[in-house]
Amino acid sequence: MPEATEAKILMIEDNKQHRFMYDFQFKQLGYKNFKAVTTAQEGLESVKNDLPDLVLLDLILEGTLDLDGLEVLKKIKEDPSTANIPVIILSNKREKDMADEVKRLGAADYILKAKYLPREIVEHVHQFLGSHDFQG
């Protein structure tokens, strides 16, 4: 069975500093296939073309026309070719019902970024991949 560190991870995150931090943290753990994109459109194209093993999706995507993270999640889950790709939502939205809403839409998990260091989130993702029979 392939190692979790061989997983293709796609991050859709508009914040350049966050993309840099997560890229660094994943590489520190030995991940070789981490890719980060800025906009919803780039993210949807990458999901479709690259078929990652996991998507990390920010809910608030500044500068993205008409698409926020919820809409991206819906599009990923509506497409039969991408519907089975696990999506973990990373957000600072603290609304009570948001975690339930994204899980209802098909997200595998919801992580409030402000509660954890990037390293802790990367370790959570590593454990998630290890416990969900990553097949490579």
Describe this structure in words.
This protein has one domain: Response regulator (Rossmann fold, 3-Layer(aba) Sandwich). It contains five helices and five strands; from the N terminus they run βαβαβαβαβα. The chain has a five-stranded parallel sheet, with helices on both faces. Strand 3, helix 3 and strand 4 form a beta-alpha-beta unit. Helix 2 packs parallel to helix 3. The longest helix is centred in the C-terminal third of the chain and has 14 residues. The termini are close together. The mean pLDDT is 90.
Strand content: 15-25%
CATH class: Alpha Beta
Report on the biggest sheet: 5 strands, parallel
Strand order of the largest sheet: 2-1-3-4-5
Mean pLDDT: 90
| CATH homologous superfamily descriptor | Response regulator
Q: Report the total helices.
A: 5
Tell me the CATH topology: Rossmann fold
Q: What are the segments in which pLDDT stays under 50 over at least 5 consecutive residues?
A: none
| SSE pattern, N- to C-terminal | EHEHEHEHEH
Question: Helical percent range?
Answer: 40-55%
Into how many domains do the coordinates divide? 1
How far the N terminus sits from the C terminus, by CA atoms, comes to 8 Å
